[in-house]
Amino acid sequence: MGHEQRMSLKMTNDERMTNDEIRKGVLRASLVMPARSFVLWLAASFTVCATAFAFQPAEEQVTIDETPPRIIDDEAYDEIVLNDEEGTVIKIRPIDLPKRRPIDPKSKRKVEKLIVRQVEDPTEDYEVRWGDIAEVRLYEYMVLEKARELVREGKENPAKFDEAYDYFQFLKEKYPNIEGLTAALGDYLYEDAGYWHRQEKFENAYALLNQLYEVDPNYAKLPAALGATTQKLAEPYLAADDYPAARRLIGRLAKKFPQNAVVTKFHEQWADEARQLIAAGREQIAAGQPRQAWEKAQRVLFIWPRLTEAKKFFDDIYAAWPRIIVGVTAPPPPVEQPRLVSWSARRDGRLLHRLLLEFTGPGAEGGEYACPFGEVERTDIGRRLIFRLKRDVKAAADGDHLTGYDVARQLSALADPRQPGFEPTWADLFGGVSVQDVFQVDAELRWSYVQPLALLETPVAPRKAGASSDAIGPYSMDEVKPTEASFLSNASYFGSQPGQPKEIVERYLPTSSDCWTAMERGRVHLLDRLAPWEIERYRSNREFVVDSYALPTIHCLAPNMDRPFMQHRCYRRALAYGIDRELVLKHHLLRDQPLAGCSLVSGPFPIGNGFDDPLRYAYNTQVEQRQRNPRLAIALSQVALHDLNEAAKKRGEAELKECPKIVIAHPANDIAREACKGIQRHLRSLKFTVELRELGPGISLPTDKEYDLVFLEIAAQEPLVDAARLLGPEGILGQASPYMTQALVQLARSTNWQEARLILQRIHQLTADEAAIIPLWQFPEHFAYHKSLKGIGAKPVLLYQNVESWQGSVRVPAED
Q1: How many Å apart are CA 136 and CA 90, to the nearest integer?
Q2: What global pTM score does this model have?
Q3: Is the pLDDT at 38 greater than 50, yes or no?
């Protein structure tokens, strides 16, 4: 029977007495006997005790667990092996050493004594001469040796790797500084990775080998093993033509082992492919096909952009065909959308056409406007507009020039209800038009309208019928795909500048994370719109420039007046009282970070950034903000339900038991998504059934009536004319009360700014009283671009306001 078995036997009280007597005798003997005699006598004494114990009658049947005990489950102990014939092993309490390292008994003087305490009797000290000790085994090193043993067995039985894990984890937690742990752990990870590699589970092997690098980057077999596994992982990516993913894998290997054979192999292979593409691209440039050569450049960027020769090729191709890639959060709309609420329509409008008059920014009294085709003057106490056109503005590529007859025709079309661009206010105001000479147009007005220029943001139609375009702009639409649209420069455009981009490519990025990835990795030069919670992230990158647009947007919920419940004012007010607008703004959109210019609004007009901000000329500060009031929201909804039920009874229709489901439509961008999620949560907490409907990419206003509310992002430009476009009978809402209609008519006939402001503030009050819309907040809009892109301009009204001056370069994508 071994020493450990002997010391673990169960003893009765009498047996404990016998053992105590033996122990005392041993202690006495140890004081007078030589060490070797003491040890032999000690072993014999334990044998006698064990024999006596073996003949004790069994009290009960004991079930023995045959699973071998794990040393890591025991309390820590050391072992000394005696140099007697039996090689007796004695378990002792951990030896108190200045530094726990293996001890060679031969390095000690034989007469020196080691003071120990037995595991079974930790209260008494015993002396053992070093001359009687063959070996000292420290607990942590015994655990380490067992772990190594399991690793060796794992080569034949992989289940042993799982067992070894527990041992290494134990050592890392309890004895992280033990000698040999790093080497043993390295062997374990290497052998386990080899098993997974042979099983073709390369992801598992890759993870283990990277962990081995963290443990021991100088492990001799690691470079070859990690190279082989990385190659196996990269091959499927290359087969699927996903070079960026393969490059990222090889790049991570190169950071660890730059001279690895696998790294060298792939780098040379990709460099050869890139050189072939560059040669083909240069041939296309020489043949006068620089745009087609961009396909080769894009392929070089995709395969191996770090090639030394690539930089010169990129510079040459950009010089031959300047091209800028813009990341957009909304693609060009597939159907016509109102510019007032369509982010993409406003953005791309500046690319496709120049307007007769263009808003250049807020002024002391309303907006300021300029005519890109010449000059405009107001005379005769504001009752006449005189347009003096430039003589070199081409209306078409065939050489025809824009004349006063084109402008006169367009002014007349705006007053014709049969024309698509009909403007009701202009139709009432317009008194006639004449062309004084080929390039001067006089427009007569029936009265001195406060700001007639605001009504003339309209394209100028070409004079020649059947022309390919109805507008004069710096670019024309070339190709539209679901994820990308390209615009080619207009050769006949009058405002072209040297070095102006030949092509603008808009790449659709549906989420804010997509935007960040594309910008950070160099896939786009510019982002047209930033999510507010991402602004500081872009500002923290020194490669990017973050700026804001000159105008904010006003966010609101507009009701579908074709729905019976939405026609009821109490129900619209109930929804307004059910939304905690401040919480949605601060928590969902700003993520509890302040943003200058963000503010709750009580109507559809901008509040500006202060009392002296000209943007706030239409805002009525006397209209109170609607705070969330759940009880009032529920009560008002019940009033609406009661009224509609009474009306249904009169028509002989079935009674409504509850308010119907509310469908909230919203644009497909992260700002609208987050805002509508918060609104949905608040209304649901009041037992309203709310469903969110995301519109298609580029769509801001549903083309059907399958919704109750729509989340609008209104361009806060000129309330003087935008009020009717939003709230009027022919506006976005589609209906207006008699009071609202009358106020809008009065606004259209206003002759001075003081009168216009008072009417606009009354319209603001009417909008709140009628709950014509549910106002949310004013929102400043930001964009970001890489610092290599020049000519953007500070605080533009529109993204492409200065597109003729843009100067860029080829951005080389970065790897992870």
Answers
A1: 10
A2: 0.78
A3: no
